[in-house]
Write a structure and sequence with these properties.
globular; mainly alpha
């Protein structure tokens, strides 16, 4: 999934709104936080692969715990457009 799309989904979840209603400023704030803090840490834990050059992130950890958490988050907070690919 493109990192910008992930940032949009997270921003919408934080605001309790749909992705189309989130401001560009809010998406940029989340995007920067993902790039500088969250994605590097998740990469270190082998939960995601992300590529700055292509700005794409994929969930890589096949652990049932991670998949369960991601499914729960997606069901509870994110719009149907988000996928948790392995």
């Amino acid at each position: 999934m493109p990192i910008r799309d992930l940032a949009t989904e997270i921003a919408a979840a934080e605001q309790g709104s749909c992705p189309d209603e989130v401001s560009d400023e809010t998406v940029t704030r989340v995007y920067i936080s993902l790039l500088h803090t969250h994605l590097p840490r998740l990469y270190e834990l082998n939960v995601v692969e992300y590529h700055r050059a292509t700005e794409y992130v994929v969930f890589t950890n096949g652990s049932p715990a991670v998949e369960t958490i991601m499914d729960t988050v997606a069901d509870a907070y994110l719009s149907p457009a988000v996928e948790t690919s392995v």
